[in-house]
Task: structure prediction
Amino acid sequence: AHQMVMNGYEQAHDEQVVTIFSAPNYCYRCGNKACLMEVSESMDRTYLQFDRASTAAQTTDSDEGSGVAVGSSRSSVLPDYFL
Result:
């Protein structure tokens, strides 16, 4: 299923069901957090929440390994289908 939750995760049914949403600031306008859930070998859960990235971010040589090409810049222009 595809369900946005503002906190990035939501527990239900006595914490037996967890919704995880991994897209921060969905559609560039929702203001929600993203979340990853880590599960240990003993089934303990840890929730890692993330805010959206800055829209003014620029890449530098220190961004190697971040998944963004060195020397490129991130665009803050929204595609029409998100408006």
